[in-house]
Amino acid sequence: MDWKAVIGIRPTASGAPLKTSGVRELEFTWHGRDSVRRIREIAEVSPEIASSDVVISLISQSDIAFSRSRARASAKWVAWVRGKPWPAAGEQSLLRRLPLRWLETRALRSADEVWATTPVLASEFAAARAAEIVPAGIGGVSRTSWGTEGAGPLVWAGRVDVDKRPGLFIDIVEKTRHPGRLFGEGPLTVDLQKRHADGLTWAGWADADELWNGASVFVGTSAREAFGRSAVEAAAAGLPIVIARDYGAAPLLVTSDEMRRACVVESDDPEVWANAVRRILDDQDLRRAVSDHVYANAKQLTIAASVKIAAERAMTLVDGVRSI
Q1: CATH architecture for segment(s) 154-298
Q2: What is the predicted pLDDT for the residue at 62?
Q3: What are the tens digits of pLDDT across the range 221-257?
Q4: Torsional class of 32: left (φ above 0), alpha (ψ -120 to 50), beta (otherwise)
Q5: Which of 11, 76, 150, 182 could covalently link to 317 via disulfide, CB atoms 3.0 to 4.6 Å apart?
Q6: 242: which strand partners?
Q7: pTM assigned to the model
Q8: Strand 241-244 versus strand 264-265 pairing type
Q9: In whole angstroms, what is the distance from residue 58 CA to residue 26 CA?
Q10: How is 204-219 classified by DSSP, letter by letter?
Q11: Which listed CATH number (3.30.420.150, 1.10.340.30, 3.40.50.2000, 3.60.10.10) goes with 5-137+303-317?
Q12: pLDDT tens-digit profile of 39-72?
């Protein structure tokens, strides 16, 4: 099966341009409504789309643009929702959120098929459109933990912002009196650093292979996580996890009732979180069981597995798919 991609890249994006057969990068400087218009224009003259049997859009702006595009006539269209499809309350003003939600809802309802990376994410927009689950995937991660390390630091990794609830992680470190490492930066960094929490190390951004070394438990406090790459990578490294129920990858990583009771938290109360973390820290057999359980499930969430599922779903739309 032939895959092609057209990717818009901001001029400020880091890294070198991709040199991959079938991938075309375009510098993209437009924002807001202009970005939707420009994506539609690109789609209507794109040779990649003109020769494809199935087109997959990956962001809300592309969903909205393609739903209005003449290019739809030449191919089946899948909207693959990989992040929250519209802003949540508090993230943007009501006057901006409502039109965005209306436009994306209309776009999703007009697609030939909609995919979501997790059941949690699919439930977020279920009122707009039912979705097939096509999980995202991560690159290769070596197992470095078997749940034997109970003295190592707790680890949190992500953007330091309201929806990730980094302050809750700091509460957990304080209540458990167990060392913690917080990886990442964001709008709340300066204010939270003023707490001077005992036992907490602010580690900033770091390479993936540095995040889990010597750690005891990954703590995922996010209340709005479409997938949760950090949790999946931690699990793939064998690290025991404690994560929020609303974490996108939670039902993919934790698949038994026993494990859910141990490491999926359905509360905003820091004491409830601290108790869950303490239980895993204090029980080596439980740590090992959680480590093995989440590791086995994370091994299924690879890039190769994601591509395979996507290709299989695409082939159900068109007999004899040639190009995507």
Answers
A1: 3-Layer(aba) Sandwich (3.40)
A2: 96
A3: 998 889 999 999 999 999 999 999 989 999 999 999 9
A4: left
A5: 76
A6: 219
A7: 0.89
A8: parallel
A9: 16
A10: ES--HHHHSTT-SEEE
A11: 3.40.50.2000
A12: 999 999 999 999 999 999 999 999 999 999 988 8
